[in-house]
Write a structure and sequence with these properties.
Layout lengths: L7 H11 L6 H18 L5 H16 L7 H10 L7 H31 L7 E4 L4 H12 L5 E5 L7 H10 L4 E4 L4 H4 L5 E4 L3 E2 L5 E4 L2 H11 L3 E4 L28 H7 L9 E4 L6 E4 L2 E3 L4 H9 L11
Parallel strand pairs: 1-2, 1-4, 2-3, 4-7, 7-9
Antiparallel strand pairs: 5-6, 6-8, 9-10
């Protein structure tokens, strides 16, 4: 009998991604890929068709957790498009091999990206950050490793305060940090030499989808004449936008913004909590990837080279 259930690790990983216990695009991508490997090892399939169906089901469960973070479906695409073989054992091996390759590439990509981004930072620079991005941190850490003195102005990034994580990790890297509230960004841009942000998705036109508040920061940086760059591995590129698909912006629970008691005291109000916004390419100076740095308008060329013009999603029902 074929076991159509999901491996417990798939369901646990999906919940951890949805709740943001697993956060950060590379971490999400690696977690999703490794959950597929667990599914491949643990499912009891009595035919290649049943194995493929089970893997697609696991991928769909993972895919639905965070609609804006494109690293997640890109990880699923990478693994499932390399799934092949005429027997269950062969299919299982192809999945586990693909996951191992994907995770190894992730590790190399961030190191390569960090070196590219570090070349844009000079000794003595002060960098303003928004939210928490391991890709952005890799650029600063690589610059420090090169012997450059870098200081950071870190926005706390409400409502979840991911900027606190950035501040902690920069201090561990020996970077002097000034933590500011989000609304103080314009004032402190006068003291910044660069703005450095990450991305959850990058559209074919070079638009950067990142933590809410990025777009306003980019507009202010452009007005102040402070260069702004996005650090993003190519797993952040959104291939569906090549065919006109728009990136879905995740809306999170209102209790991240206001607790129930306070809401009841205020009375009947609407609470909106969009997790991301879109920064038009004209406000971004460069997108830094493991393949080099690109003007935002040129990112479509890299996207076509990596993904082609689009194909049916590998987790879709046949």
């Amino acid at each position: 009998m074929t076991d159509h259930r999901l491996a417990p690790d798939v369901e646990e990983t999906a919940e951890a991604i949805a709740s943001m216990e697993i956060r950060g695009a590379a971490t999400i991508a690696a977690g999703a890929a490794e959950a597929l490997a667990t599914q491949a090892r643990e499912i009891d399939a009595d035919s290649p068709e049943a194995f493929r169906a089970s893997m697609r089901a696991a991928a769909r469960t993972l895919r639905e957790t965070r609609p804006t973070a494109v690293s997640l479906p890109n990880a699923l695409r990478y693994v499932l498009r390399r799934m092949g073989g005429r027997s269950v054992d062969a299919l299982r091996e192809s999945v586990t091999d693909a996951v191992e390759e994907f995770v190894a590439q992730l590790d190399r990509a961030q190191e390569d990206l960090g070196r590219v981004g570090a070349n844009r930072l000079a000794d003595g620079d002060t960098v303003m950050t928004h939210c928490h991005s391991t890709d952005a941190l890799a650029c600063i850490e690589a610059a420090v490793d090169q012997g450059k003195h870098i200081e950071a102005i870190v926005k706390e990034t409400r409502p979840r305060n991911q900027g606190h994580i950035t501040a902690e990790q920069l201090r561990e890297a020996g970077v002097p940090v000034t933590l500011i509230v989000d609304s103080a960004a314009r004032r402190y841009l006068n003291e910044a030499d660069h703005v450095l942000v990450g991305a959850d998705s990058i559209a074919a036109d070079g638009g950067v989808i990142n933590k809410i508040g990025t777009s306003g920061l980019a507009v202010n940086a452009r007005e102040r004449g402070v260069p702004i760059m996005t650090a993003a591995q190519t797993i952040k590129l959104h291939p569906e936008t090549l065919t006109g698909h728009t990136v879905e912006i995740e809306t999170r629970a209102e209790d991240e913004v206001i607790d129930r008691e306070t809401r009841e005291e205020i009375g009947d109000i609407a609470v909106e909590n969009p997790a991301f916004d879109v920064t038009p390419p004209r406000y971004m100076d460069a997108i830094v990837t493991e393949h080099g740095q690109f003007p935002p308008e040129s990112i479509v060329t890299l996207m076509r080279e990596l993904f082609g013009e689009g194909a049916a999603e590998p987790w879709a029902e046949p």
